[in-house]
Amino acid sequence: MSVELFPLQSEDIAFFKRDMQKAFQKGAASEFSELDEQVLPEEDIDKSLNKEGAVAYKAVENGQIVGGVVVVIDERTQHNHLDFLFVKYGVQSRGAGKNIWDQVEKLHASTKIWETATPYFEKRNIHFYINRCGFSAVEFYNPYHKDPTIPDDMAGGDYFFRFAKVMHP
């Protein structure tokens, strides 16, 4: 699969959010059959999109959006963060995610370190970040070692892996 990244336009935001939420929901539902809550609230996406340094891209193949990514770029330190990467539900396992990530790395080639996090139950994400993209698991957040950036009342916020990828010039 060959996708191209384009900056997210205001007219794409509603579809982008909907597709991202559906992809995250389906991923969580594959692990938790009795899932009544939205695993990725719209306000979490908005918070990411509005962060200082946030850059969002839509991934397009043959004129159709097949995924997207939101990264937060710190121009001063180049210690950057991958907030969200998603492949539209029904398009997974065709190489789109890896293609998206490879393009992000090229677009932000000055990055010294990339960081991201994923819930403990997202086996596909853990495989993807470690085995496909070259990240290393560097920390495991749990009730005894909390992520200081996640509010105490956030549902499911207790069990996350933090990943880092040191880029070599």
Which regions have little confidence, pLDDT < 50, spanning 5+ residues?
none
What's the CATH first level? Alpha Beta
CATH superfamily: Gcn5-related N-acetyltransferase (GNAT)
- Can you count the helices? 4
Number of strands: 7
Strand order of the largest sheet: 1-2-3-4-5-7-6
N-to-C span: 27 Å
SSE string, helices as H and strands as E = EHHEEEHEHEE
Largest β sheet strand count, sense and barrel closure: 7 strands, mixed
Strand content: 25-35%
How many domains make up the coordinates? 1
CATH architecture: 3-Layer(aba) Sandwich
Structural features, described:
The chain is of the alpha+beta class and 169 residues long. The protein has a single domain (4-166), classed as 3-Layer(aba) Sandwich (Aminopeptidase). It has four helices and seven strands, in the order βααβββαβαββ. It has a seven-stranded mixed sheet with strand order 1-2-3-4-5-7-6, with helices on both faces. β4, α3 (96-107) and β5 (113-119) form a beta-alpha-beta unit. The chain is globular and about 45 Å long. The mean pLDDT is 87.
